């Protein structure tokens, strides 16, 4: 045994080591603990992985960049924000992951997201490393011109750190097609290159068809694989969804199309409820109207939905829950409501939407959990397809991309299932972490000590 083996003796010992190195970063600790619970034995029992300290190395990002973003608001006042990019690992491809613009953005949040991205991107089977970035900027309540000035200022610093073979950002919370347009515009102006250094671009401006739909559709394809395994179908199932962003709305569209009764969508202020389920036109209308003024109550009213102020969708009865808003949105009480109400499957549309306590409650109630790393990997997978198209100078059809997305989600499900067998049952979280880790660990080993 080498002198560093103590930290692999138990998950608690490992976390003590991690927490001492990354003090006070609660979300990061939560994400790393989740993975350590599933892969610690692999990291310990394989002599090479143990001696080369591969798991330990993977908890330390390659680098974390932090920079000042100065811009002028519509009144000519100077605003100062902080931008970040966590380049976690390029062991299996260029750094890849979204940008989040939200006041809740902190180094700990971005580190957890970049860490999760590592396993997610590995599971896609594509050559995508892991990164995440963003800023503590809140686009809500800002004019489009203010958002443009912010994005241009942000990219003025970020451009020197990214590139199609180096680091390829994309969208996330607060960064949709409008922001990607501004960011890419500034990137190509500064670099004088129309290169695929950012994904989620508009179709016709270097973007890929199906990128917008991919995360939500992919989550529903993953759900269909789970149901098929149990000999069940989505048709007629009651599905509660949180969030009203890109992931939530596209999950709602696909689930409704496949016959599910989609009853809820939500934002930070409350949720909208239609007990008999939203129709296709309802969801389309919400998708068209909500982003403009973010008044979910009014948009819900226009499609005949009830507004429930200050509450979350998990108090409603459903068989399937798809949390698609943000990290730790679903807590212990919510988990109890779900389990008591007969929910049997939770699909993580968002990244790490369950608190640790919520996970325990759901586990005890034998509710199956599809981890975000697997279930929401469709978005980054189609980002990978966008990168391929950019390099080849091609534009693939929606049909082809949808087929590729379905196959990717099926393959991810199979990997998570195969690696997730434990005590006569299947834990997809364990399977996703083990399959994701196996590929990255092999790559890290092959490079030697670095
Ligand atoms: N932000 C998305 C995620 O969490 C997409 C990342 C990407 O397309 O690079 O996976």
Strand and helix map with partners:
Layout: H1 11-21, H2 26-45, H3 47-51, H4 54-58, E1 63-72, E2 78-89, E3 95-101, H5 107-123, E4 130-135, H6 144-158, E5 167-170, H7 177-191, H8 211-229, E6 238-242, H9 246-257, E7 261-267, E8 270-273, H10 280-293, H11 296-302, E9 306-309, E10 320-323, H12 332-340, E11 345-347, H13 356-364, E12 368-370, H14 372-375, H15 378-392, H16 398-419, E13 421-422, E14 425-426, H17 428-446
Parallel strand pairs: 3-4, 3-5, 6-7, 6-10, 10-11, 11-12
Antiparallel strand pairs: 1-2, 2-4, 7-8, 8-9, 13-14
The structure holds glutamic acid.
The fraction of residues in strands falls at 15-25%
- The assigned structural class equals alpha/beta
Computed Rg: 21 Å
Cα separation of the termini: 21 Å
Low-confidence stretches: none
Average pLDDT, all residues: 97
Please identify the oligomeric state. Answer: single chain
Binned, the helix content reads: 40-55%
Biggest sheet architecture: 7 strands, mixed
Give the distinct bound molecules: glutamic acid
Helix tally equals 17
How would the global form be characterised?
globular
Give the strand order, joined by hyphens, for the main sheet.
9-8-7-6-10-11-12
Number of strands: 14
Question: How would you describe this structure to a colleague?
Answer:
- The chain has 450 residues and is an alpha/beta fold.
- Helices cover 48% and strands 16% of the residues.
- It contains 17 helices and 14 strands.
- It has helices at residues 11-21, 26-45, 47-51, 54-58, 107-123, 144-158, 177-191, 211-229, 246-257, 280-293, 296-302, 332-340, 356-364, 372-375, 378-392, 398-419, 428-446; strands at 63-72, 78-89, 95-101, 130-135, 167-170, 238-242, 261-267, 270-273, 306-309, 320-323, 345-347, 368-370, 421-422, 425-426.
- The strands form 3 sheets. A 7-stranded mixed sheet has the order 9-8-7-6-10-11-12, with helices on both faces. It has a 5-stranded mixed sheet with strand order 1-2-4-3-5, sandwiched between helices. A two-stranded antiparallel ribbon has the order 13-14.
- A hairpin with a 2-residue loop joins strand 7 and strand 8.
- Helix 5 (107-123) packs across helix 17.
- The longest helix is centred in the last third of the chain and has 22 residues, at 398-419.
- The radius of gyration is 21 Å and the shape is globular.
- The chain starts with 10 loop residues before the first helix and ends with a helix.
- The mean pLDDT is 97.
- Bound molecules: glutamic acid (GLU).
């Amino acid at each position: 045994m080498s002198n560093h083996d103590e930290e692999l003796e138990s998950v608690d010992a490992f976390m003590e080591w991690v927490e001492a190195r990354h003090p006070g970063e609660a979300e990061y600790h939560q994400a790393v603990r989740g993975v350590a619970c599933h892969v610690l034995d692999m990291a310990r029992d394989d002599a090479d992985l143990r001696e080369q300290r591969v798991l330990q190395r993977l908890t330390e990002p390659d680098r974390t960049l932090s920079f000042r973003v100065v811009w002028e608001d519509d009144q000519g006042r100077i605003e100062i924000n902080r931008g970040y990019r966590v380049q976690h690992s390029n062991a299996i491809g260029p750094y890849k992951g979204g940008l989040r613009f939200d006041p809740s953005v902190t180094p700990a949040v971005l580190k957890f997201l970049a860490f999760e991205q590592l396993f997610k991107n590995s599971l896609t089977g594509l050559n995508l490393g892991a990164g995440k970035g963003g800023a503590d900027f809140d686009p809500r309540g800002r004019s489009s011109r203010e958002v443009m000035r912010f994005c241009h200022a942000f990219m003025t610093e970020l451009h020197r750190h990214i590139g199609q073979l180096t680091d390829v950002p994309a969208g996330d919370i607060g960064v949709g097609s409008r922001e990607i347009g501004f960011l890419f515009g500034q990137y190509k102006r500064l670099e004088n290159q129309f290169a695929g250094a950012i994904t989620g671009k508009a179709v016709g401006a270097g973007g890929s068809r199906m990128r917008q739909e991919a995360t939500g559709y992919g989550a529903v394809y993953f759900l269909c694989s789970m149901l098929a395994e149990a000999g069940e179908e989505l048709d007629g199932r009651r599905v509660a969804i949180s969030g009203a962003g890109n992931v939530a709305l596209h999950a709602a569209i696909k689930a409704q199309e496949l016959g599910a009764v989609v009853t809820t969508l939500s934002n930070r202020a409350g949720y909208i409820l239609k007990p008999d389920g939203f129709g296709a036109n309802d969801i389309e209308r919400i998708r068209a109207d909500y982003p403009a003024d973010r008044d979910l109550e009014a948009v819900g009213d226009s499609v005949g939905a009830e507004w429930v102020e200050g509450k979350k969708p998990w108090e409603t009865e459903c068989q399937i829950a798809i949390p698609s808003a943000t990290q730790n949105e679903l807590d212990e009480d919510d988990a109890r409501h779900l389990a008591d109400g007969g929910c049997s499957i939770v699909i993580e549309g968002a990244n790490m939407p369950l608190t640790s306590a919520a996970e325990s409650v759901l586990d005890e109630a034998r509710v199956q959990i599809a981890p975000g790393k697997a279930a929401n990997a469709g978005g980054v997978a189609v980002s990978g397809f966008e990168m391929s198209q950019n390099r080849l100078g091609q534009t693939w059809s929606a049909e082809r991309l949808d087929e590729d997305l379905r196959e990717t989600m099926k393959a991810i499900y199979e990997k998570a299932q195969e690696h997730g067998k434990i005590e006569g049952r299947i834990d997809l979280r364990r399977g996703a972490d083990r399959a994701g880790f196996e590929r990255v660990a092999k790559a890290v080993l092959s490079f030697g000590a670095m």
